[in-house]
Amino acid sequence: METGKLLPPGQEVHHHFEFTGKAGEFFRIWIVNVLLTVVTLGIYSAWAKVRTRRYFYGSTWVAGSSFSYLADPITILKGRLIGLGLLVAFSLANQYFPLVSLLLMPVILFVMPYIINKSLSFNARVSAWRNVRFKFQGSYWRTFLYFILLPIVTMVSLGLAFPWVIKKQKEYLVNHYSFGGEDFKAFFLAKAFYMMYLKVIMYITLFAIFIGLPIATFGNYLGGLSGSLIAMTATLIGYLITFAIVMAGTANIIYGNISVEEYRFESRQKATDLLLIYLTNVLAIVCTLGLAIPWAMIRLAQYRAESTTLLADEALDHFTDQAQEEQSAIAEEVGEVFDLAVGI
Length: 344
Prior knowledge:
The chain has 11 helices and 11 strands. With 344 residues, it is of the alpha+beta class.
């Protein structure tokens, strides 16, 4: 990674991320969220999301300060109601007026970049560290290019361009985030993404040959419910192996190759560690009929935090002072948000 603004190695201080959340504490929040969401027929889900994120943000610390989640549940609820209304309208059109829904597809494709930008911008504005908010400023046409047109390239290339497309999307996102007026900068190599997905192919192939196929054969031999459960278990393990490699690899590529001002990050996630966490989480959730979900979420957050380090000067005061000056100019809230799972 090359940039002229990075601190000299001798002046860097390793600020390790820490997650202080406790399973017992979060269980009380989670169970209330679930019950109230059910009782209110989903209306409370906006408040549940805010309570959950505030707990996880507030429990994540670096350099002596925790993060903050500042969203208003009413804003999220409005966005969800709008999204739900659009989804219902499209579903009805698709069922009763197929031609109309077909004509709407191009419209949806052209609206999606706007919705993605609004979602990313909102989520950045309501995320803060040391009372300084993050910011996302993406352009409509660039978002259209990276999230609408490039996926078409993936299909045309029969999947061969997929790692390159993921690299371009993550690079675009990182380069349009900022903190206190200082832009994040990405230094990604397509080779790293290709190597990660080649690793997925290699491990899944080995798993299928030496474990998956014998298990499936044994399941077919047993037949019935037992055989189906065995086959489903093998499929789940294969999926978790893929997921662990991709999640660990993506985190290490992204957080290990970005900087903001003269500061940079390190990420040390291991696919084997994540796989063990995923497997035990799934087992615990199944055995407790879902009651172990809070415990599973907490231990995953702890691992991710403990695997991440901020390399900066000792106090970060200069950076925070600059960011605080910028905060007064960007604090205004925008009233609409569409809740999309797009980000780095």
